[in-house]
Amino acid sequence: ATCDQNRERFGRYPCYTSCRLRAGEDSPYACNKRDHCHASTCANDTMYVERLMSTIENHVCLDLRRQYVTGMSVGGMMAYWLAAEFGDRFAAAIPVAGSALLGFWRDPRYPIPLMDIHGTEDDTVPANYSNGFVGNGPDAKPYPMVVPGCPECAFSNDGFYYTPNDNITRGVAGVNGCECARGDKKCHVLSWTTMYDGTKLSREAKWTCFQSFGSGGDYPVVRCTWKGKHFMPLHGPIETATVKEKKQFFPNVAWEFLSRFHIRKGSPKEAALLRRVPLPLLAVGSKVS
């Protein structure tokens, strides 16, 4: 199961939210006529993105060694999925407030630098059990609700069950060769510096970035947290931040991270990329190092 079966508890979603292939309008799984399901469709998004990228790569002059993926909320979930599926095409990834529904995560096929950004008060897509939903009104509890059979998993405020982000990032760290990805090896948490460290804005938002699994060399796994709910970082009630500062924060942090990375010549990722993309296309506009 990927969500609480008692949908009446949450109100917003009148029926179960997992899409069933070719659900007809009269099917008990069809929530509406347009897309059949809330929070999902029967469309193959993976195939769509692959064809979209191939079309763009064949018609636009791109640096194919410097393509990146990011997204927020469901877009963050998609960013995680695409990083796992197309690690040979993306040089780095930044999921924001993203995760994977319980039972739907698999580790990337290729190493990929990752920065996971999550608000510590986000119970819409909670990062772990401690950030989970505590209930509403008389049903509220002093502790988060528990996912049946998975006490460390995250329970969201709309009843979905999420894989703990520690499990997801640990899986990526293992593929990336981070020295402490194995559970039997303990390492000191390493800090990760951003351009906002030490600023008043950073202090008020409690913005901090770190590497839980040691150094990944060319493929770090960075986790960033801030005092916020289900928003882009620093959006929401950060009193001292101007609208302009809030809008600039994520693009600045994201590009500072992403611009460090490219698919290196001679790497397994490049070999996989060459199998997908004709050599003349790869050479056009590409910087080789």
From TrEMBL:
Does the record's keyword annotation contain Signal? yes
User: What biological process terms from GO does the record include?
Assistant: proteolysis
Q: Which SUPFAM superfamilies match?
A: alpha/beta-Hydrolases
Using the record's annotation, list all stretches that form the Peptidase S9 prolyl oligopeptidase catalytic domain: 56-100
Q: Does the keyword Signal apply?
A: yes
Pfam families listed in its UniProt record: Peptidase_S9
Q: Which InterPro entries match?
A: AB_hydrolase_fold, Peptidase_S9_cat, Plant_Biomass_Hydrol_Est
Locate the coiled-coil region(s) and give their ranges: none
Name-wise, this protein is Peptidase S9 prolyl oligopeptidase catalytic domain-containing protein
Q: What is the organism field in this record?
A: Haptolina ericina
